[in-house]
Please model this.
Amino acid sequence: MTGLVIRNAEVEGRGGLDVRLRDGLVAEIGQRLARGERGEDEVDAQGGALIPGLIDHHIHLLATAAKADSLALEDVSGPDDLAARLAAWVSARPAGRWVRAVGWHERHAGPLDRVVLDAIAPDHPVRVQDQTGALWILNSRALAQLGDDLPAAVERDAAGRPTGRIWRGDAWLQARLGRAPPPLTPIGAALAAAGVTGLTDASVTTDAASAAVLAGAARAGDLPQALRLMSGGLLAAPPDRAFSVGPLKILFDDRDLPPLEEVTGKIALARSLGRAVAAHCVTAAELAVMLAAFDQAPGDARPGDRIEHGGVIAPEAIGELKRLGLTVVTQPAFVFERGDRYRAEVDPGEQPDLYRCASLLAAGVPVASSSDAPYGSLDPWAAMRAAVRRQTRSGAPIGPGEAVDPGRALQLYLGRFEDPGGPPRRVALGQAADLCLLKTPLAGALAELDAGAVAATIVGGRVVHAAV
Ligand SMILES: [Zn+2]
Model:
């Protein structure tokens, strides 16, 4: 494997340094390094900062790719607008072909069920996902293709007919529909362009089949990032390590909280497998159940045990998170993207508890950042801006005291896979050559927090993205 030399970079605050990458590692750092062996590539950093590549610590890759292939309903203005857009989308597709729409929310787009969908699109099987990802709504044609033995997740009306609404039915729907995997190349490329070199897929539904799809995309270079997969059940890493196995994901239906023993049992299972636990906690009720379960589960917390989202964290829960050794993997971009809705819908007394950041760090609770794409935007730099500004799309504040400075906002992406809220990875001898080269010294990039600052992205010592 030939190496790569990056010349005249700023490394950990020192300018004018050359960095040699070899065999996937940082092999040499110094001033004016001698030319290397024949065939070694050179990149002129022109004084730009070389920083560790960003890790998106919570993303759903297949859903993100599918979304790129779907009708987006996030900015629908009302029921008529939804009907017009959906009708236009289906009319451009042959009758009988599956149609997928995402991002529906009742507040913006009006109520939706099988009957409403049938009136708009009777000739295509249609499925519409709500903005949280917990609910699918299907029309009659779609329901008819699912067979007769419908599980309890399929809601029924008083007369026993399916309403078309399916709660948390992803795994079942996926198994029943068996659709071809969506293209991952655009997702891998967009993340590489933003300096992202590592991904933790947080899907509870990941099984051997979907893991094989992602491993295939990693081998083909469609997903150039280092890949780590969570799963809700057993999962084995392939011999070529196309992905590594991450925490066991725990996600339950917050409208029907499970008995505590069930949750402690899952934690015990994760520990027996040597895996950390990643617990989905958007609401205060979910967090309360998980904190009680972590408290009672046998064995000690692992450094990678984590709370996903931490959407609502009451002040008294902060000390518990610290005591139990849990990391919070948050999504700062939700403050911007969904903040206006939170301000309208969340109890004002609970609004200071939304997507905390600075108060957790101050209390010694490790925090890491992520996109939760497709439910949030892919761009980590937009999320960093949101973490710094704590403003909604319309400019209203959400928990302004939770703001962090730009350097800290970046660090939330620099923890290791195993310890996402731990110390940032370094550009130092012997470290993995998963790197992000910026166009300017770090101070300039932090002043802007824009993905346009990324000059090149390097994974395993190879350039996977170079800005033109
Ligand atoms: Zn998620």
Remarks:
- The pocket of zinc ion is lined by residues 58, 60, 202, 372 (CB under 6 Å).
- The mean pLDDT is 94.
- The domain at 54-61+182-424 is CATH 3.20.20.140 (TIM Barrel).
